[in-house]
Amino acid sequence: MKVLTANRLTNGEAVWLAGDHSWAVTLQAAEVALDEATEEKLARAGTAALLKNEVVDVALIDVELDSGALRPVRLRERIRAAGPTNRRDLGKQAELQIAVAA
Questions:
Q1: Which pLDDT does position 11 carry in this prediction?
Q2: Cα separation of 59 and 54, whole Å?
Q3: What value does the mean pLDDT of the chain take?
Q4: For the chain, which terminal residue's Cβ has fewer other Cβ atoms within 10 angstroms, N or C?
Q5: pTM, full prediction
Q6: 3-state SS class at 39
Q7: Distance, CA of 66 to CA of 78 (rounded, Å)
């Protein structure tokens, strides 16, 4: 299982390619490739977005299902999905804390 990730050029935000070819801010919204043909389709979409200066650092990454949710296999990608490790009040983990408190 793979998803396509990148960083949005305008603000550096980690993003994942969704099924409608938009860039989602959560991993759970990403289109999942279960075969090589879908991986190639995602890679082509990523290259097109890179050429249009929408994103940088485009990469297919391995993911797995963990309790029904997508989870990156590599630690680096788990950190990118959650936000910076130096401050829990910034990035995606801060948004999660606000949602839980609401």
A1: 86
A2: 14
A3: 88
A4: C
A5: 0.83
A6: helix
A7: 13
